[in-house]
Hints:
Chain A is an alpha/beta fold. Chain A is built from 11 helices and 14 strands.
Amino acid sequence: xxxxxxxxxxxxxxxxxxxxxxxxxxxxxxxxxxxxxxxxxxxxxxxxxxxxxxxxxxxxxxxxxxxxxxxxxxxxxxxxxxxxxxxxxxxxxxxxxxxxxxxxxxxxxxxxxxxxxxxxxxxxxxxxxxxxxxxxxxxxxxxxxxxxxxxxxxxxxxxxxxxxxxxxxxxxxxxxxxxxxxxxxxxxxxxxxxxxxxxxxxxxxxxxxxxxxxxxxxxxxxxxxxxxxxxxxxxxxxxxxxxxxxxxxxxxxxxxxxxxxxxxxxxxxxxxxxxxxxxxxxxxxxxxxxxxxxxxxxxxxxxxxxxx
Amino acid sequence: xxxxxxxxxxxxxxxxxxxxxxxxxxxxxxxxxxxxxxxxxxxxxxxxxxxxxxxxxxxxxxxxxxxxxxxxxxxxxxxxxxxxxxxxxxxxxxxxxxxxxxxxxxxxxxxxxxxxxxxxxxxxxxxxxxxxxxxxxxxxxxxxxxxxxxxxxxxxxxxxxxxxxxxxxxxxxxxxxxxxxxxxxxxxxxxxxxxxxxxxxxxxxxxxxxxxxxxxxxxxxxxxxxxxxxxxxxxxxxxxxxxxxxxxxxxxxxxxxxxxxxxxxxxxxxxxxxxxxxxxxxxxxxxxxxxxxxxxxxxxxxxxxxxx
Lengths: 308, 308
């Protein structure tokens, strides 16, 4: 079976939205990526670090989805990474209220032996040098390395970020980050400049406005499914990435045509993620529900204009 | 041949963008709608009003595109409506610097006899009572009445606006206007509330982020074609509406499936409009160019996921 390496945070989140607030609940990029990827029945391992305060039930929740946790280091006397944020009324912007790195401050990822020949590596948002170290541990060159990052690293570790961007195949960032990275307003021009930095594929996420996939002169776009209500956007980008990566691992087809489909799967899964707080919706998601929403996606986007 | 009635301004625009500025050039909603609709070789008439200062060459430009100007009243000693605006650096927002209503202040639209049985009526942005008067002049109930409006009328003539909204089939407004009209943030909920006000079809335009078409529980989405450079957004919404209306008149098919295609044609034409100042790009646009861009649109949006 094809394998996926997921590197990223496994964390506690506390979230406040206009609809309510939570205490510490399960969160983290690798958690959301893993839950999304688990929909594809693939071999996926999470490489991360947690403290002794991390509840057994959260580990069980992930294990029960067949997510391999052999890459998760547990620091018995340490505390798990904690993020607290508050969303504004438009749900498109948020303030970070608390960031406690805790054990993440000394994270040295170790890819389990069994996964050093994985076809796909999904690098969740982390320090670029941490991401780089994972690539270097792979014994067989992966078919696809996907990178998520954010403006924080552009501000604080740009040189290191460029080192990792050079070595990856797909970068997934949001529109403002693409603009910051390239100093270009047009996303078409920004994508071209990012291509020149290394990645063959550039995914630019626009939140509720959808996502672009650029590849040379080709471009594909998937809207976000219009929802009555966005309850909590936390993890939507990671869920998108996890669906994207999971579908590619499952199919083993890394053509542009298949990456388009992976984008649709990613968008579809992300549309569920935002319906409830944290991971709640992703924990309870059936294949039938996904199938139904893929159908909605086709109705939303497909049309029949015959061109000679 | 099927007929289209276009009601709206024929005007002078002066535009400033980050890329340059123009003196008074040809503008106005009906102008852009007409130029877009003229691509479909249909019988289209403009119902509008201009002053004696309006250049013969602009009238010729429209006539040469087979746009019927028999509904354009010329007030010899009056001055043509003038709008001057300046776009901000992001090109998504603009300031109105000058609005001179001039002859538009006393505009009483008269639909030419020959067009009082037209299949489609496109009501460009004007006072709601002016729009209403056009509907009332139609001797045969049109197959489709399309309304464009804006926040100005929501602020200043809301009651009259509701009178006209009750009588139309398609409303085309932008996302902020939809939110203002319904006091709902979610566009899905806003669309449902607008349905309840009368229109069977609700088009919500999001500028560079594309457009939704809502019809009962169905929703279709067309992205805006990603461009290297948006030179001047003036008229893009009207061009979209003109392409939408023109395609429907041409095909005579007012089903939801065909409205989807009309949205794609509208988006395609709008993608040309923004490439040059004012009407310049729309004046010189070949069928071949449109065909090529429709092809790009399919590549941008179409994917193949088989669902049982």
